[in-house]
Each structure stands twice: as C-alpha cells, then as structure tokens.
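Researcher: Can you fold this with adenosine monophosphate in place?
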Amino acid sequence: MIKSISTFDIKHKRVLIRADLNVPISDGVVQDDFRLRALLPTLNYCLKNNAKIVLMSHLGRPKGKIDKKLSLMPIGEVLADLLEMPIKFSHHCVSEDAFNVTLGLKSGEIHLLENLRFSNDEVENNKDFSSKLAKHGDVFINDAFGTAHREHASNVGIIDHFSNRGMGFLIENEIQYFYKLINKPKKPLIVILGGSKVDSKLSLIDRFLNVADRIIIGGGMVFTFLKAQGKNIGNSIYQENLVSAAFDILEKTKNTQKLVFPSDYICNTSFESKKKPVIYSKNEIKDGYMGLDIGPRSIKRFQSILNDAETIFWNGPMGVFENENYEEGTKSLASSIVEFTEKGSKSIIGGGDSASALRKYNLTKNVTHLSTGGGASLELLSGKTLPALQRLEI
Ligand code: AMP
C-alpha cells in the first residue's frame, strides 16, 4: 500500500517533496506550465496544513555538470507566481547553506533546491547523496510521476531514510486514471498508438488486446507491422528485431478488427527533402520513399472510429509532427480527440510526444487527463513495476 499525503500529520513538519518540475524551457522562459499546475493540489494542501515545504526536482539532462540554462530558478519563479507567494531558492541541493535554509523554514514557507542532476549522484542512485537529501525532510512525499520508472537517489535511494513516506495528489491522480483505463474503462475504448519506438509499445498492445475495442496504430511504428506482413515499406523506419513480435501480434488478432492501420501515407525521399511530399496507399510505398505521416483517407477513417468512443487513450504522434509537412495526421487527430472530449468522451493522453503535440496546437487544457509522464505511463500501462512507486509501499 502507498500512503497518500492526506494520511500524514504534516503540521509544522518539513515535507520533502520529489516533484517533477522538468518543463520545457527556452532562454529561461517556461514554455508550458502544465506539470507545475498539476503539482498545485499537493503544494496547496501542504500550505493549508501549515507544513514547511522543501521541493526537489531535475530539469533536462545536464549530465552531472552545472548548466545555467537548466537551473530550476526560473521555474521556481513561475511556481511562485502560480502560488502567489515567494519561494526560497538554494543553488546547491545538499550544501550547508541549503540545509540551513531548510532548518530556518517557517510553517507555510517553501524552499526549492537546485537541479538534482547537476551531479551524477542523482542518476547513479548514490547512497551518500540520498542520505544527504533526506536531511531536508521529516516526511517524504513523491509526486514526480514522470520519473517514477527511474531508479534515482531522490526517488528510490532516499526511501531508506523515511518511515513516513507516501505519494502526493499528482501521482495518486495518475494512478487512478490509469488503473481505471486498464481495469474498468467506459466502453468502447479506442487506443491510438504512434511514435517511432515499437519496443516500448508492443507489451502495451498486448495488454490492451483484451481491453480495447480498437487499437489504431500510426506513426513510424506502423512500418514494423507492415514489414511483418511482407509489404514494401521503401525506406520507412522499422525495427528489424521486432518484426517477429509484430508478426505474433498480427497472428493473434488475425480474424478480428481489433488492430487498425493507416490506409495511406504521406511520403518523401528523406526527412529533409525539399521535394513535394507524395501520398501512397498502404500497398505501394515506392523504393527510395519513406512514410512520414498518415494520409487523408487514414485521418478520415480514424476520426470515424473515434466517433463511437466513450474512452480514448492516445500515446505517440501519427507522423513527424515536428515538421509542418508531416504534422497533419497528428494535428487532426489531436483536434478530433478534443472535439470528442467536448461531446462527452473521456480522453487520456500518455504524456511524452503526444503532450508536446497538444502543446504545439495549444490543446493541453482540452483533454480529460494529460499524463505528466510519457515513459512512466507506458510502463505502468504495460504492467511493469515502477521502482519509485514500489519503494514507496509500506
Ligand atoms: P516515440 O518516442 O516513440 O513516441 O516517438 C516520437 C517520435 O516519432 C517523434 O519525434 C516523431 O517525429 C517520430 N515519428 C512519428 N512518425 C514517424 C515516421 N513515420 N517516421 C519517422 N519518425 C516518426
């Protein structure tokens, strides 16, 4: 059992929160605050209950070096604006100065520590580092769903130092949505998978085969399936080592309508080609060409399938949406998901690149649940154990 933050007496206590403040940032300006907003229920609860809050997080991949561009300071400022209160900041997470700031905290105050990954100790799950981090708190709360599939000092090593440990409302909320999605979704449930990596999604397809009514597959991952069907995929990306696993899934679903593949593709000779993209149907991608987005017929078909959905789960773009020539599939799908959500369907988005796509089209607030964790949500839904959650168990 993982205890909820709501079960602790946190009054006047130092609550050390592992948060996920890893938000997109450019030139010190936060591009999207959705992960920060998702943390507010936990922070507001601590404030209401007169706790002393110490926040720690990573940002990006500084690879163990101090990188000013990846400082958490500007993120602390946005958080301070959202909470309408000042936040104390320490430039080093385990320095004497940082410990003194924590010791001097008054109830209802917040202390934010600098990027945990400015030293390799965090990702190496260094014992000494986790024991030092633990000095910041009486109670440990993990509310960083986005890193729950990682085994790091601030979410796994640190657990040894706390009998008072639990999860915040953000993690509680994520688990509830995903538990319901896999165990008792409102049907019909339509799952849409895309993106380029097949390995992380095969076990997910397997898990959803008995739960979902239809599983739409798009993006680069589709070509591993087409290869398994013996189709010509030109130069499209595919994963050779997973062709047989894709074949097994095709065999399992042979006489069903469960898997839905695109019927046409937007193709070009390379990602960067200046040539006009061409549309090929699923059986005729020419040698020298690669599929970079789903085509207009596929978009229409996917939209009509979504029309029946009570629940929609989406993970992974339909094409190389970062390039405007190949974004139409992802963009149309995102708009359709929003449209059906407005009409009453529940939409759950698995974070990662699908979240980036929603952000690009300014739609992050228009879905039922946008997960704060891409990799973590995939692993949770695939039935894998997330180390940080497992260690939180009492
Ligand atoms: P993933 O991390 O597996 O969700 O993959 C996301 C990436 O897949 C995005 O950066 C897309 O550009 C890329 N992608 C989507 N469709 C294709 C495609 N047809 N060919 C190559 N890459 C793709």
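Model: Folded with adenosine monophosphate in place. Residues 195-197, 219-220, 237, 291-292, 316-317, 319-320, 322, 352-353 surround adenosine monophosphate (CB under 6 Å).
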